[in-house]
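Thread title: Can someone regenerate the structure for this chain?

I was given the following input by a collaborator and told the matching structure tokens would be attached. They weren't. Posting the sequence so someone can regenerate them.
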Amino acid sequence: MVEQITIRKPDGGKYKALVVDDSAFTLKQITQILMSADIEVIGNAPNGETAIRMYKELYPNVDFVTLDITMPDVDGLHVLKEIMSFDPNAKVIMVTALGREDIVKTAIMNGAKGFILKPLDRLKVLERIKAILGA
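Best answer:
Regenerated them for you:
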């Protein structure tokens, strides 16, 4: 049986997320994990350029972003810097594989609120998001 976790805003409303990953599988996996906790995924971006454009279009209705670090063309660190310069209060959660501690530290110094490790574990992902959102 899958443990039911619901993550809601203090007022009871749904959190809204933008999911960014160049892997269609990971994009779908994160989306399903978030939706299982009653989080509304209001956008999926398959690359960095799209992520930056979508964040600006969806602002201020995005509560947080899950952002893959390793993507072709525009990587997650560049996307993070662009989002943070546009919205200094953005909540960006980096998604990375094990062994990338150096990049995670750089991301945190550039404004990321935390990170999620691949391979994705549903409960760990939701616990991390809940902690970052203060839900």
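The first strand starts at residue 16 and ends at 20.
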